[in-house]
Amino acid sequence: MDKARKEAQRTRSRTRGGLSPDKYLSKPQQQKLLSYVKAQADLGRARGSKRALVDELICRLLIEAGLRADEVCSLRLKDLPVCHDKNSVWIHNGKGSVSRTVEIPQRLTKAIRRFCRLYRKGAGPKDPLFASSKGKPICYMTLYQKIRRIGERSGIGKLHPHMLRHTYATRLYAVEKDLLFVSDQLGHANLSTTHIYAKTDSESRRSQVEKIADEEPS
Questions:
Q1: d(C-alpha 201, C-alpha 72), whole Å
Q2: What residues are labeled active site?
Q3: C-alpha distance from residue 147 to each of 43, 84, 167, 180, 194 (Å)
Q4: Is a pLDDT exceeding 50 seen at residue 15?
Q5: 50-61 per-position pLDDT tens digit
Q6: Which domains are present in the chain?
Q7: What is the pTM assigned to this prediction?
């Protein structure tokens, strides 16, 4: 296993109090990232270039669906709304050879449909969503390098695919605090693996420490 993959898959199973701050993006960083990839994609559309649009959709699948990098690389059209007409992505061979359905927001469904309509014309259900120059699914290292380059050029700095997955999980948990749903979405075999997100970037946890600060004498 190469160094980049080891870094992306390193767990924090003994961490208390949530993920370390360098493992996920803050809300301003998320906005900065998505604004950057959208601006680059808009520029690419104007110039007739496809690469920036690929980069944008990859980022969105990582940060809006929480997919693993390998799962993004392995996506085929038959796994997507463009074929099965549902707001979900089918992961047919995730970590541990486990398959699962990942629910996705409607705006991401629309983005996938638009991308396939414009850039995957003539592709069959078994063809990859993101194809190399030889028509094969893109490899992990290609995706990893894309995300690293985007991090540098967007001004975020160090960025790798698993940071976007961590960011998604943290955001999703904050919505309803439904740990089981988060676990299902991420494809975790053990709920204890998911529990770290309940302790990461929590509004309620931060509000408690702010209240203490407000009560301190000036």
A1: 26
A2: 68, 95, 162, 165, 188, 197
A3: 18, 28, 14, 29, 24
A4: yes
A5: 999 999 999 999
A6: 23-215 (1.10.443.10)
A7: 0.89
